[in-house]
Design a protein that fits this description.
Number of helices: 4
Number of strands: 0
Number of domains: 1
Radius of gyration: 20 Å
Largest sheet: none
Helix content: over 70%
């Protein structure tokens, strides 16, 4: 038996919760920002800290990388192909 009906007359919570509604271009921008914040900028800050002897650069590298990791987590879930979205796409 295969169900081909959504079984409801309105949108489901899961289809709203697990769909971000952003374009592929937006996702590419987030990915570029994520790479910069996770790796490139913290590395530059650490190198500046070593070169200048100023520990403020090293301390600043932590929150910068943290923001990059938050962007990475959002991107990971935004790019996922969630089963309920796949199901509802075949139904509609």
């Amino acid at each position: 038996m295969i169900q081909k009906s959504m079984g409801m007359s309105a949108g489901a919570f899961n289809t709203r919760e697990f769909f971000h509604g952003q374009t592929a271009l937006f996702l590419r921008h987030v990915k570029a920002i994520m790479w910069g914040l996770c790796f490139a900028l913290p590395l530059v800050l650490l190198l500046l800290s070593v070169a200048t002897g100023n520990s403020a650069f090293a301390i600043l590298a932590f929150p910068v990388q943290y923001l990059g990791l938050l962007a990475e987590r959002w991107l990971f879930f935004a790019q996922a192909r969630h089963p309920q979205n796949l199901y509802y796409q075949t139904v509609s």
